[in-house]
């Protein structure tokens, strides 16, 4: 029994990767953040940013929360705004997946769409403009510079990982977006538990954007909360590899996750090949449900992936969807 949906944030499960793992002496676990109530890792930081602002008096009754978002942070903020009684506006590029827009609307949020060609930079610029022009009306958490972002992972995500691995974790893999996950988890475990932890981060290859991740040289500024000393290695990943690995997680492990999770797992699998043994935790920031309308989930792409890797699945005959003729009698077996 819980008093509020906010009490469900955190304590997400970790699942061991069995079929994709190239080295059996390297344990690989996926931390499934889709099990947060808003469906992503961003619920954690949304709660921390809002409650910190309330305590400090920067967010008052009657103010409107506004935030640039590719979707997940916005959904987390919308969910918390519903519980706490705030209005919320999400500023986002017009080309984000329709599922994210629909979830935001279902949670009562208003959406402002910016030019797709400007990416998240355009959304960030417009949200900052509105927040600075009407400071008494809008409160902008600003996930890219808000230390509560790092604190959320320092106090919750890192503790859960250390607890659930029994203190055995040797490698942590996550993506770089706001950088809060990488910095918060690394800082806590290295400072308090294991200074030898290796942190590997996934970054999109230039010109191949991955939702939720950033290639820092391509963006107009680096997040203020970014502390490079807490990341030991950065690996570039193309969108195609991220998407393909996400499909493989679904087809071989039954784990339906988004492209950024695929990017993280791609990096993890490559790193596992270099190790003799270890315990690796890989962040899966959200689920594939957010990408149903994108190429990630197209029947043609799923079929191509299954054939490429010789994965036995029911639709390997090339017909993922088959319609029964109206005149055909029902049968008891396929």
Structure, explained:
The protein has 334 residues and is α/β, with parallel strands linked by helices. The chain is built from nine helices and ten strands. The chain has two domains: 5-35 and 152-291, Rossmann fold; 42-139, Rossmann fold. The protein has helices at residues 42-56, 72-84, 98-106, 119-133, 147-164, 180-192, 239-253, 259-274, 299-308, and strands spanning 14-16, 26-32, 64-68, 87-93, 110-114, 138-139, 171-175, 198-204, 233-237, 278-284. Helix 6 (180-192) links the parallel strand 7 and strand 8. The radius of gyration is 21 Å and the shape is globular. The protein starts with 13 loop residues before the first strand and ends in a 26-residue tail after the last helix.
Q: Biggest sheet: strands side by side, in what order? A: 1-2-10-7-8-9
Main sheet? Answer: 6 strands, mixed
CATH domain topology of the largest domain:
Rossmann fold
The number of helical elements comes to 9
CATH class annotation of the largest domain = Alpha Beta
What low-confidence regions span 5 or more consecutive residues with pLDDT below 50? none
What overall geometry do the principal axes of the alpha carbons give? globular
| Strand elements, count | 10
Radius of gyration: 21 Å
Structural class: alpha/beta
Estimated share of beta-strand residues: 15-25%
Q: Please name the CATH architecture of the largest domain.
A: 3-Layer(aba) Sandwich
The helix-strand sequence is EEHEHEHEHEHEHEEHHEH
Observed structural traits:
334 residues; single chain; four-stranded parallel sheet; globular; alpha/beta; Rossmann fold
């Amino acid at each position: 029994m819980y008093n509020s949906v906010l009490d469900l944030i955190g304590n997400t499960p970790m699942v061991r990767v069995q079929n994709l793992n190239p080295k059996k002496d390297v344990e690989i676990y996926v931390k499934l953040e889709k099990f947060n109530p808003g469906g992503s890792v961003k619920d954690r930081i949304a709660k921390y940013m809002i409650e910190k602002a309330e305590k400090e008096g920067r967010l008052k009754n009657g103010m409107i929360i506004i935030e640039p978002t590719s979707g997940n942070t916005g959904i987390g903020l919308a969910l918390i705004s519903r519980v706490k009684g705030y209005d919320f506006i999400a500023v986002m590029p017009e080309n984000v997946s329709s599922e994210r827009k629909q979830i935001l609307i279902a949670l009562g949020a208003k959406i402002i769409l910016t030019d797709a060609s400007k990416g998240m930079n355009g959304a960030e610029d417009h949200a900052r403009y509105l927040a600075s022009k009407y400071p008494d009306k809008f409160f902008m958490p600003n996930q890219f510079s808000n230390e509560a972002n790092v604190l959320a992972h320092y106090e919750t995500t890192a503790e859960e990982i250390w607890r659930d691995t029994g203190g055995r974790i040797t490698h942590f893999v996550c993506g770089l977006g706001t950088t809060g996950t990488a910095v918060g988890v690394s800082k806590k475990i290295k400072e308090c538990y294991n200074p030898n932890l290796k942190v590997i981060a996934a970054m999109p290859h230039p010109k191949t954007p991955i939702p939720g991740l950033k290639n820092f040289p391509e963006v107009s500024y680096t997040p203020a909360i970014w502390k490079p000393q807490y990341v030991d290695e950065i690996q570039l990943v193309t969108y195609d590899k991220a998407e393909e690995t996400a499909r493989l997680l679904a087809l071989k492990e039954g784990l339906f996750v988004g492209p950024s999770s695929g990017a993280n797992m791609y990096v993890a699998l490559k790193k596992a090949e270099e190790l003799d043994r270890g315990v690796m935790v890989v962040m899966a920031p959200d689920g594939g449900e957010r990408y149903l309308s994108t190429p990630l989930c197209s029947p043609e792409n799923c079929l191509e992936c299954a054939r490429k890797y010789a994965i036995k699945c029911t639709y390997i005959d090339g017909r993922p969807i088959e319609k029964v003729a109206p005149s055909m009698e029902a049968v008891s077996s396929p």
